[in-house]
Amino acid sequence: MFRMGLTLFFASAATVAAADPHPVPPPLKAPPLSAFECRWTDEAPRVDGEGGDPAWKRAEAISAFHLPWLGDKARMGRTATTARLLWDREFLYFLAEMEDSHILAEISGHDAQLWKNDVFEIFLRPEAGKPGYYEFLLSPNGSRFDAFYPRHDAESLRTGPKNGAFQWEAKAKIGKPGWTVEGRIPWTDFLRTGGRPVIDETWGLNLCRFDYHKDWAEPELSCVAPIRKRLIGPFFHQVDDYATIRFKGPDQSAKPFGLARREPLTTSTVSGFPDPPPPFVAKRAFDNLRPGFPICARTIPGTREMLVIAQPRSYGPTAVYRVALEGDMAAGTPVKLIDTPGEGTAYDIAFHPRWRENGFVFFGWNGKLPGKDGKHSAITRHTMSTKPPYTIDPASETTIIAWPSDGHNGAAVCFGKDGLMFVTSGDGTSDSDGNLMGQRTDSLLAKVLRIDVDRPEAGKAYSVPKDNPFIGARDFVPETWAYGLRAPWRISHDAESSQLWVCQNGQDLWEQAFLVKGGENFGWSVMEGSHPFYPGRKAGPTAFTKPTVEHHHSEARSLTGGLVYRGKALPELAGAYIYGDYSTGHIWAVRHTGAEIAWHKKIAITTLKITGFATDPDGELLVLHHAPEGEGGFFRLVPNTAKADTSFPRRLSESGLFDSVKDHRMVPGVIPYSVNAPFWSDGLHKERFMAVPEGAVGWNKSRSWDFPDKTVLVKSFALETREGDPSTRKWVETRFMTRQGGEWYGYSYRWNDAGTDAELLPAGGADAVFAVEGGRKVPWHYPSRAECMVCHSRAANFVLGICDGQLNRDQTYPAGVTDNQLRALEHIGFLSVNWAGEAGAPKDAAQRQQPGQRVAKATGMLPRPPAGLERFANPYDKAQPLEARAMAWLHTNCATCHVEAGGGNAQMKLDIGTPLAKAGIVDAKPLHQTFGIEDARVLAPGDPSRSVLIRRMAARGANSGQMPPLSSAVPDRAAIELMEEWCRSLGKPAISP
């Protein structure tokens, strides 16, 4: 690989034999060009050694192969060489055609000393001023040599240049009157130096040729770089003398959006908020404490340390950690104390009121109990040292109380002022109380339990307090304090007011919080909160108690119980019960006198996945964020300094986005788009636009993209008053999704009857009924702002419909240009792509980014051409594959909820990236309503009549179990037919090829 001796064989042109068939060219009158172009291609050439692809005709012909080191006698090479370079998102392409009447190709093998034969050579230096450069050689027999040199010096060359493997492809072909080489080098081969170039970036280049001939005394070397002098040694490596190659971008002349390059939109007035902002915002606490997926935290009494329950992923086994705090920082790293027994999931922690005396700490969890079948919820007691370092003795574990439970587990625990323990239990299943436990009184399930752990009965770890409300009642388990719960998540007791609060996750439509009193019946599953759920089911013997507060699923999907605040930092919240929602991130406060609600309001809008509330050692509020390590952790509420923005546009005509509202024509720079798999909106026509005032849009693989602040996504809905006649379309609604201050918000505008403008609706939304031809009435719901965020959720990355799979389609634009939407957006500079991150880190460290070298540049180019990116099927196009159509419909209409952490409480994942076998729908038993279907399945292979999924798609109306639950009053008949056909196909045996 080292060629120090090679150039010692050079002789002057005068020594060449007279019979030379290639006479020495005369000296150059002027130096050849040393700055070249590598042009973009949308048509990838085939690597076949032919060089016949049309793409090569657009490449610059580089034929300046000369001997510049001869000074005044510098001349061209004796045999003609013409090279061409092209590039695209994935590869650098090269083609070299060499005249040669005598081809020497005796040496073979990868990384052999190919330069002792005829060879074509490429040198690339990615950045001037950075030392690294590459060498690629190809001989006429197809043998290759490749190398990365971290720097240019004799020692580096002598000790060997190989640094990891390369994946380039090349082919050589010998013909008349010479030979041709053609190849492509993936940009991942350049990850050592930041990978792919960006448009108009300049790299150092040297293209070289070793040319042997039987009639020549010496081989001739020629190159395109202006090498000033020939040094002893491998002088083609003189990187400071290299020519340059500029990477030219795609042709912008088509202008599908009327733009050659995108410019920031300056006319938008959609900024700020039309309503007064909530009084508080979330701010991270303990910045250096970011555990993965924290569930619960409790301060060790009288210390500045906490116990934290966390888990490595968003579900599954947990562990308990001890964390020391110093001010608003963690002092050192968390110390793991114990794992949850049997790989269970712990939910709650409670210290005994006399912990300093007995060291007892209690954990509520669910999992496998020794000697028992199935999963159980349990409260267990451990002994903990009451002096530093506060360790827990695993051998001290004692089960206090347990009950069978496999879903809706409860297992929250707290102590009352009298030292008695309160425990929650759920209905024990993920179904719609399929075991009918909600109103059963003879079971520990679906209740708030009250027990005495200090005075246990014989054979038990607790006793039943004599003043429990159902003591002596024959049909009640005596531990019952209250009953009729579905899925309680958190219980807390306030010593000052003696208030006991429980939050509960609802089923189909409602979330609840209860100020609990002894003897109450909360109604599940006859009721869902204060609303009938299964009114025909047998109720318990006591009257129902309505929730203290209740939230529709339009604003909350998974309530997380909190605590009554008694700190000093937020005096306006003193004495208020603080609780939040896992799915929406919203936080509320309610102050209750014990007899009635004094006030109740939303106090913060966050992006947190709230699993719990806690107090720090100073008694100040903490909010737990359930996210991966580095993202999860603890937050505080701090006053919100934002003010209501009275300039927020109240009409579309004030938004600065419409050139003509009446004609629904947008201003230049507002980008139209369409999708492959549209969300069902009762058959209305929709038009969609993106308005991005400043900043590029962050591209993400197979998920929604990331937009900068002040972005406005526009979607308008039009009703055809004569079905099937586009000329009768009447605009009824325009929705804005806008990102302000790092958060997304949704707003609806209702069009006037004249179709000249639309007016901003209040936060609660509205309903309307439109008359169409034939006297038919069409109901239409304008969503509330909270409803917008149910679908545009954190789990869905807030933005729906703007991702590769949806936008990867051809579109004809107003300018008359037809182009793929992704390519069109890429070409105008709309995107920001982390190409190096998308390329992935090679396993071999020598192939990764190397220190001191060029680093990856910000780019607007996609990692691959659109054909190599995800593309959803059109559910309504019968020419496309059946299953792909069905999965695309489910992804668009269902996966915003039915995805990990999406809020859908059925155990299935319907995003298109989840394989069907893992989606949890085929031949799966329903976890909620079965609609009375015998042997029901979510999707029964071969039998649509037993498929609850299809039944839900067809259902509409309150308490009907319809899916999607929002935004539709009319079933999607075409989609139902699609699902029925797909369902029937699943029952057919596979056909062998």
Written account of the structure:
With about 1000 residues, this protein is mainly beta. About 5% of the residues lie in helices and about 30% in strands. Strands 1, 2, 3, 4, 5, 6, 7, 8, 9, 10 and 11 form an 11-stranded mixed beta sheet that branches. A 6-stranded antiparallel beta sheet has the order 41-42-44-45-46-47, with helices on one face. Strands 13, 14, 15, 16 and 17 form a 5-stranded antiparallel beta sheet that branches. Strand 26 and strand 27 (about 500-505) form a beta hairpin. The longest helix is centred in the C-terminal third of the chain and has 14 residues, at about 975-985. The protein is globular, with a radius of gyration of 35 Å. Residues about 1-20 have low confidence and may be disordered.
Q: How would you name the oligomeric state of the polypeptide chains in this document?
A: single chain
Q: Beta-sheet strand percentage? A: 25-35%
SS-derived structural category: mainly beta
Mean pLDDT: 90
Full CATH superfamily name of the largest domain:
TolB, C-terminal domain
Kindly, what is the distance between the CA atoms of the first and last residues, rounded to a whole number of angstroms? 50 Å
Number of helices: 9
Tell me the helix content: under 10%
Gyration radius from CA atoms, angstroms: 35 Å
Largest sheet: 11 strands, mixed
**CATH C-level label of the largest domain:** Mainly Beta
Q: Architecture of the largest domain, according to CATH?
A: 6 Propeller
